[in-house]
Here is the input.
Amino acid sequence: MNKNEIPNDRNQAPIFEILKEIVTDGDKNIFEIGSGSAQHAVFMAPKLPGITWITSDLTENHKIIKARLEEAKIPNIRGPFQFEVGKDDFPRIPFDLVFTANTFHIMSWKNCKTLMKNLGNRLREGSQVIIYGPFNYNGKFTSESNASFDVWLKERNPESGIRAFEDVNNNMIKNGFTLYKDFEMPANNRTLVFTRLNFVK
Ligand SMILES: C[S@@+](CC[C@H](N)C(=O)[O-])C[C@H]1O[C@@H](n2cnc3c(N)ncnc32)[C@H](O)[C@@H]1O
Here is the structure.
């Protein structure tokens, strides 16, 4: 297992600092895509008591999420919902914000594009999408460790790989979003926050 795959507790607090800036009093639900072990839900939800954190992932990961949630007993977490980008529609539940961590380099680029398109169709004006993970800039890795992580990812699945910030940004723009901010994070990661613009497509 590559170190970038290990749930990175070092990034939890910095991600929360961003969520604090993004989540407003009017926001009621955050939909998380690819919750994995539910580590973000369990860390963030108690600190954001005004919102419900909705977990989702492929069914094969639900056992581990359920076990973690049963142990944590946090009232404002829902799910896990079955949601596989490229296969499932969004669950029929309301949500104001979308959070996803360490998924863009796992999913195929085709699925990343499907997700961005569907987010554009689903989210109302002003809703925000928070994407955490490693990204390349100007055709370059931002660190040696990200370069070797990319090799490791592609050996595991040739469709995985660290995405270019510019490709993600361009696709989000194409689907009706604007970049609110690109936050630098520890361990050569980024948090990209996009805002849904006026609904014209
Ligand atoms: C590296 S893990 C990240 C887990 C967690 N978000 C974290 O940051 O620790 C990638 C997650 O993406 C999920 N995933 C992979 N392909 C997906 C898809 N097509 N749709 C939704 N989730 C997907 C995996 O099941 C896994 O939980």
About this structure: Residues 1-7 have pLDDT under 50 and may be disordered. The pocket of S-adenosylmethionine is lined by residues 5, 7, 33-36, 39, 57-58, 61, 83-86, 101-103, 106-107, 111 (CB under 6 Å). Helices lie at 12-22, 39-44, 62-72, 109-122, 144-156, 165-174.
